[in-house]
Amino acid sequence: MKKEEIAGELFSEGYNCAQSVVAAFSEEIGMEKEAAAKAVSGFGGGIGRLREVCGAVSGMVFVLSNIEGYSDPKDRTGKKKLYIKVQELTGKFREEKGSIICRELLKGINADTSPVPSERTPEYYRTRGCRGCVECAAGILEKYLEEKKEKGK
């Protein structure tokens, strides 16, 4: 099963957008699914339902950072390399979805910033494009990681 399908299924189970992407890649980042989901639980709804950066994008960046990130604060080369890749992958998401901002992606849908999560009803899933965003982010990341593996880098 492709990562985008796994992430989409996780979203349909009730995980938020960030959790769905990260949990789909939990093995690749060396985390148990539950720990991975907990680590990014506050990024759903565009960071705590503030409707800022899409949680699926945040999840994608979290996974990428775990795989290719740096830990030395003086590693300017590592930082630049990661930021280039983050901009590239988020740019692909923006090209496909039109934005990386949650409230813009939810345009025309009640995208309030109340901290109370929306009930996951059939209507919720039918009217929101969140699953598509989750699948898009996971697909972009999976494709990048596959290409990187093929190149042997």
What is the gist of this entry?
The chain is an all-alpha fold.
Topology overview:
Blueprint: H1 3-13, H2 17-24, H3 33-39, H4 44-47, H5 55-68, H6 76-97, H7 102-105, H8 122-127, H9 130-151
Helix pairs in contact: 1-2, 1-9, 2-3, 2-5, 2-9, 5-6, 5-9, 6-9
Question: Would you give an account of this structure?
Answer:
This protein has one domain (3-151). The chain contains 9 helices and no strands. The chain has helices spanning 3-13, 17-24, 33-39, 44-47, 55-68, 76-97, 102-105, 122-127, 130-151. The longest helix has 22 residues, at 76-97. The two termini are 24 Å apart.
List its salient traits:
single chain; 153 residues; mainly alpha; 64% helix
Task: Choose one word for the global shape.
Answer: globular
If helices are DSSP runs of H or I spanning 4 or more residues, what is the number of helices?
9
The total beta strand count reads 0
- Structural classification: mainly alpha
Low-pLDDT ranges: none
Q: What's the N-to-C terminus distance?
A: 24 Å
Biggest β-sheet strands, sense, barrel? none
| Mean pLDDT over the full residue set | 94
Taking Cα atoms only, what radius of gyration do you get, to the nearest Å?
A: 15 Å
Order of helices and strands: HHHHHHHHH
Overall structural domain count: 1
Helix content: 55-70%
- As a percent range, the share of strand residues is under 5%
